Fold:
Amino acid sequence: MVLKELGKILLKICRNFDIVSRNGGEEFSVMLIDCHPQQAISIAERIRSNVEQNAFILSNGKIISITVSIGIAIYPDTTLDLSRLIKEADNALYKAKQTGRNKVVLAGS
Structure:
């Protein structure tokens, strides 16, 4: 139920031409089409903030709060190699998790 609600938040915040997908487990990807770094950071921060403020209701009725860590990689701003784009975003995600969680990290920063 939490993953469904999280998916709804992602779809609500992202633009109608962006691509939102679930990678498996608790991990999602969002491809922001034609998006400069500051705009990507702004969208990611809106996602992070909305998730943090949302009350997630479990199937047993219990209400929980969650947070998300977000890694951003942008072609050609943070990597010139398209085949490394996902790896760069993943590295930024792990940096967000390792440096306190519930934050947005741009690759290379």
Summary: The beta strands are 19-24, 27-31, 56-57, 63-64, 70-72, 104-106. The mean pLDDT is 97. The two ends are 34 Å apart (CA to CA).
